[in-house]
Give the backbone structure.
Amino acid sequence: MALKNDILSLMEQNRTKIFSGRELSEHFDVSRNAVWKAVNTLKEEGHTIESVGRKGYRFAKDSNVLSEEGVRVSLIESLHDIRLFVAKEVGSTNEEAKHMAAQYPNEPLVFISDKQYSGRGRMGRSFYSPAETGLYMSCVFYPKPREPFSKAVIYTAMAAVAVVRAINSVCTVRPKIKWINDLYIDERKVAGILTEAETDLETGETHRLTVGIGINITTADFPLEIRGKAASLGVNVVRNRLAANIINEFYTLAAEKPDDLMEEYRRDCFIIGRDVTFSDGLQLFKGKVAGVGDNCELILDVDIEKLTFSHGEILVF
């Protein structure tokens, strides 16, 4: 690992500490000039590192650059060596994650980017993904035992629960879930989740899932078409820490029995009990959301009957 990465990792672990040039040179057994060059390289890469008088260097409070080192320091021990890729800009983190998964088959991995220029949401929509104000990431994992495709939607619910938990732990804000997996605060969307499955056509089993997660953290200037519908967390959190918490929660839940999380999902699902207009892609239905089933299916009271849907979209609520 390059010296600058070693220094970055150490400073990420101790974000408020002042490190003298002498301390860093002795810690890494390099010259003070090498330390100075490494710190300047980090500054050129966008990290806000303050020179504190003659005392040394420390991270500025507003330093919020995404980095592999910054994420790894907050991962739980069992995930510390997970394959992790961090980029400044990509078309889509889901596409990049699937590309990397082809190179490292059957290995869980995470792809994170500061910006997406072709970010995708559900139903073929785009997901606005500007630099510096959000978090865009994709997690790849392999269900074991392999689930039938009809049950794969439970993992979308799992991702929603993981992101709610992670956001709540980092900034105490607790978003609510709109079925299936959009996260809302005060009736406006702050995060979206897109799950893509690779299935075995012969057995109908889900082999691999790629779960894309996009979160508006401090984004303010939304495009006209989503202005008034989208919002941000409104809290300037350390993005590396939030990303790590999502990874921790996501893969911990994935290792457990996903069905066990549905009660938590229902508690955070604000749409239950509401009158809605729902589309299954072919037909519109108006009714009241009676609940969410154990396989994350939407249960809708329409006139005198209950209808169940495993896919579709709530249009009006």
